[in-house]
Amino acid sequence: MIELRELCKNYRTNKGTKVVLDHVNAVFPRGQNIGVLGRNGAGKSTLLRLIGGAELPTSGQILRRASISWPIGFSGGFHGSLTGRENLRFIARIYAADIPKVTAFVEEFTELGEYMDMPVNTYSSGMKAKLAFGLSMAIDFDYYLIDEVTAVGDEGFKAKSKAEFARRRDHSTLIVVSHSVATIREYCSIAAVLDKGKLFMHDDINSAIAHYHDINRTDTRQ
To answer: How far apart are CA 222 and CA 26, in angstroms?
Structure first.
């Protein structure tokens, strides 16, 4: 289980303090794939980075009683001067994963070829996302954090990614953030709406989608 208690996240900007998350309380249970709908800039990716531990909250708590992936598509954890293979080995050791098994999966899945032995700082953003995605799928987690930015690569790679997600849903829980209703419907059984720093949890996915549409209509009228 993942639980958020009075979670706050603020950033200082030239125009003052931007509140991204404002005293958010929520529980993400295992066994139900959870979607988080929000417009661009609502703080969806920030929420995933906080849950995954890539960022620290301004205040509040995140209780994690499960193994959690880093946000898939987030490559900030890679060391740029190390090769893809070296990064892979380092991360596999952190998670006590079988290095030969992880290496074989990532090489086949990402199709990075000779780039596996080149420094990550020579990669394009799409190649970094492929490496992050493949490495996430090569290690077993209770929760997978999925950002909409993971739609990288050609149609063949996207098809492989969707098939891998489908396999993971059999024994792991997905937390998917997106501004796309179609994406949330495809992958999730329940959903929440992130708007103006507040996270509104819904037991019914149709209720969450209706809430999201209402927010968009209201903003269009203003």
So the answer is: 29
pLDDT score of 136: 85
The crossing angle, in degrees rounded to 10, of helices 125-138 and 84-94 is: 30
Concatenating the DSSP letter of every residue in 167-207 gives HHTTTSEEEEEES-HHHHHHH-SEEEEEETTEEEEESSHHH
- Which one-letter amino acid corresponds to residue 124? S
**Alpha carbon distance 210, 184 (integer Å):** 13
**Integer Cα distance of 173 and 184 in angstroms:** 14
Q: Could you give the CA distance from residue 37 to residue 39 in angstroms, rounded to a whole number?
A: 7
Phi, psi of 107 (to 5 degrees): -60, -45
> What local confidence, expressed as pLDDT, does residue 152 receive?
58
Give residue 153's pLDDT: 61
How many Cβ atoms are within 10 Å of 27's Cβ, its own excluded?
A: 12
What is the model's pLDDT at position 132?
84
Tell me the C-alpha distance between 177 and 151, whole Å: 13
d(CA 107, CA 13): 41
Evaluate whether 132 touches 160 at the Cβ level (below 8 Å): no
**What average pLDDT values come out for the chain (222 residues) when binned by 10 residues?**
96 89 95 92 92 94 92 73 94 92 93 94 86 87 81 70 79 90 90 96 94 82 50
In whole angstroms, give the CA distance from residue 211 to residue 105: 40
For residue 156, what is the DSSP state? H
Q: How far apart are CA 222 and CA 218, in angstroms?
A: 6
